[in-house]
Amino acid sequence: MFGKTKTVHLLVLCLIFNVSSLTAIASDAPTEPEISFDQLDGIHIVSILNLSGDSTVPLTSVEITVWNISQPEQWSLLTSSPYLDQVVPYTKSGTDLTMWSWEHSFNMESIDCTCYIEISLLEQTDLISFGLIAYSGNEHHRPVLRHALDIDNSQIYSTKIFNDKSLELTFNYLLPPLQIESLETTELILSNVRICPAPFGICSESYTRLDSTDVTLGNLFAIEVDADAQSIQDGYYLLQVQIQDVYLTFSNNITQFVVVDQSKPVVNLSAIDKVIESQPIMVDIDVDDGYEGSAYTITWSITEPDGTPRAVLESEILEDNRLIFEPTKAGEYRVNALVRDIGGHLVSASHNVSVSNIIPTIELRFDGFIVEDGSTITVPSSGNWTFSANSSFDTSNDQDILEYTWFVDGKTLLSGKSFLASGDLQQPNYREIRVQVTDDDGESSELTFKIVHQEEQTFESNNGSILTSTVSLLFIFTIAVLVYMRQQKQSDSNTGFAKWTERGKEPKN
């Protein structure tokens, strides 16, 4: 007997027990290794341990080991061999599949133990082991508890989730040989079930004992714990199970990570109620599942104003339970969130956001100057000119899809262009131009101005100039005549000659 002792975690021991089952079925994939034993689990030996079985892979690099697992929390090495006594290849009947039969013996004289025989494939990158439970001698025997053999190996250490008050677990067990023949002993199997809160994978408090309902059927042992009766709240736990036989001998422990999640999460969406087009909408979601470490998944969707639902883009989902998107249409958007917690409970929540459209603003320019609504613009009757509405603006989502329509004297002339050039007008003597800018929601703005042609302005100006000139000339001429007459009058009074008057004839004296 070897004195070397090796302590391992209980979960590793349970895994080894599970994969060692004779009833394990080989994988359908031909490359999956499988080693089986001809002996049944729980075999009782006295001196010589004779083993045999079959393998789906060559056994050129293996190790076979016998462990003493009489103590529930530890095991020690008894003996080992780097090879098997005999390996013989053969073709499986009815197929072309090559198999290998093997045999090996150990001398177990004077050894009393609950033993575990393990065959390990050393050539595998990940060590794969197969094993068998054996009771040697007549002492140090104990029950062996392990996960149900019909559970897939990948699920053994997966978290068990319970979404109602009943916590049910099923195990396989072995009893020492002297008790197998007595059916009454199976009815005296006692369970020892303990639990501790473990939100981060380790116990945050000490284990507490639970009352359970136990059912034994053949080599199956089932326990059921009423979570409500035991005051188990929603959360993460480590559940530890152990059994005792009729002699009150304890089996190994099996520790299972479990989640109790009986309640639906409380979900709240918060966001702004009203925005204008192209203004980003940010939606925050708050999920409270009632216990530390809870986890959930969120499925987002957005219902457009026309009632069409759409999935959100990856770029619209932020890491911290936040959704942000930019509306492109006016109307009412509905943001939907479907939350599923660990227990499978579904909760839906939604939030409505009203999106308002902004009417486009017209900015019209002529020769670089802004044209006001109702203004009068003089254009040359010949030559090129352009009225441009390129500077008109709207929200970013509508800016590039604005529609422009030009009206001349009340009739539609041109649409689809943001400018009106002189070459677009064929008829002469037009008097009024109107431009209308429309967005994708049908909202529009318009601007109207009058046109004066340059020739008409020149003719009227010339007529005014001629009249003014004529009046000016008449005025000047009148002034000149008056000045002349005045000057003549002054000239006559200043000549210096005596003016003779005729004296009447009188008789001379």
Describe the protein in words:
- This protein is mainly beta.
- It contains five helices and 37 strands.
- The strands form eight sheets. The chain has a six-stranded mixed β-sheet with strand order 1-6-5-9-10-3, with helices on one face.
- A hairpin with a 2-residue loop joins β16 and β17 (220-226).
- The relative contact order is 0.08.
- The model is unreliable at 1-30, 456-460 and 497-506 (pLDDT under 50).
Total strands: 37
Taking the alpha carbons of the first and last residues, their distance comes to: 209 Å
Number of helices: 5
Gyration radius (Cα, Å) is 53 Å
Strand content: 35-45%
Biggest pleated-sheet summary: 6 strands, mixed
Unreliable stretches (pLDDT < 50, length at least 5) are 1-30, 456-460, 497-506
Q: Helix proportion of residues, in percent?
A: 10-25%
Classify the secondary structure makeup into a structural class. mainly beta
- What global shape is seen? rod-shaped
Q: Order of strands across the widest beta sheet?
A: 1-6-5-9-10-3
**Arithmetic mean pLDDT:** 83
Entry summary:
The protein is mainly beta and 509 residues long. Helices cover 12% and strands 43% of the residues.
Keywords:
509 residues; 5-stranded mixed beta sheet; rod-shaped; 5 helices; 6-stranded mixed beta sheet; mainly beta; 12% helix
List the helices and strands and how they pair.
Blueprint: E1 5-6, H1 10-19, E2 35-37, E3 43-45, E4 48-55, E5 62-68, E6 75-81, E7 86-91, E8 98-107, E9 113-121, E10 128-136, E11 144-147, E12 160-162, E13 166-174, H2 177-180, H3 183-187, E14 190-197, E15 208-210, E16 213-217, E17 220-226, E18 235-244, E19 254-260, E20 266-270, E21 274-276, E22 281-288, E23 296-303, E24 309-311, E25 317-318, E26 322-325, E27 331-341, E28 346-356, E29 364-366, E30 369-371, E31 376-379, E32 386-388, H4 396-399, E33 403-408, E34 411-415, E35 419-421, E36 432-438, E37 444-453, H5 454-493
Parallel strand pairs: 3-10, 12-19, 21-28, 31-37
Antiparallel strand pairs: 1-6, 2-4, 4-8, 5-6, 5-9, 7-8, 9-10, 11-13, 13-17, 14-15, 14-18, 16-17, 18-19, 20-22, 22-26, 23-24, 23-27, 25-26, 27-28, 29-30, 29-32, 32-35, 33-34, 33-36, 36-37
